[in-house]
Each structure stands twice: as C-alpha cells, then as structure tokens.
Amino acid sequence: MTNRMSNKKEQTTRDSHDREVRRAVARLKAGILGLVFGMIFGVGLFAMTAILLIESGPNTGMHLRLLGNYFIGYAVTWKGAFIGFLWAFAVGAIIGWSIGIIYNRIVAIRTNGLKK
Predict the structure, then answer these.
(1) Measured distance CA(84)–CA(109) in Å, rounded
(2) In the chain, where are the structural domains located?
(3) Region 80-108: what's the mean pLDDT?
C-alpha cells in the first residue's frame, strides 16, 4: 500500500512539473516576429543610408552601395533608401518568421517528449 501511494505521489509531482515546463516555454507568434525583424532591418538600412546622405563626402556609402548587387534598385540616394527599406523589410520578415517557425517546432517536439 505504501509503495502504491509513493508511486501516485511521484506521478502527481511529475505531472505538475510537466505542466509547469509547458507553461514556462511559450510559443512565439511567427508573424509578429517577422514583422518586428522586418521593421528593424528596414529602418536600420533606411537610417544607415540617410546618415550617409546627410554626411555626404567623397565616396559616400562606398561599402553600402554594394547592397545594390543583391537588392535590385538600391543605391545610396533618397529613392534608394526607400527601395532599400522595402528590400530589408522583406529579408528581415522572412528571417524573423523562419526563426519563429523553427522555434515553435522545437518547442512542440520537446513538450511532446515530456508527455511520454
């Protein structure tokens, strides 16, 4: 009888521990994470381009200009700053969304492993 009570108490403790772990490991909203990453990337590139345009000196944005090889239409100009914002937003959104999806899948695998 004592052994049975001990096993039941142990199972109850394990179940409460599993519930606590599931509650502590939150899932991410992949769409929101994508939006946040997109805004950070887009505003970041826009700000870098704007700062270079305001400072304007010889060879303005020599290194940043190379992004035009990847982002069609991007240049270190005001028009290019807006085009760069759109491209960087898209890249950041894809990266953020991917991180959210991968994280949620890992959490699902780990929490399903706790049920066993």
Answers:
(1) 37
(2) 28-115
(3) 95
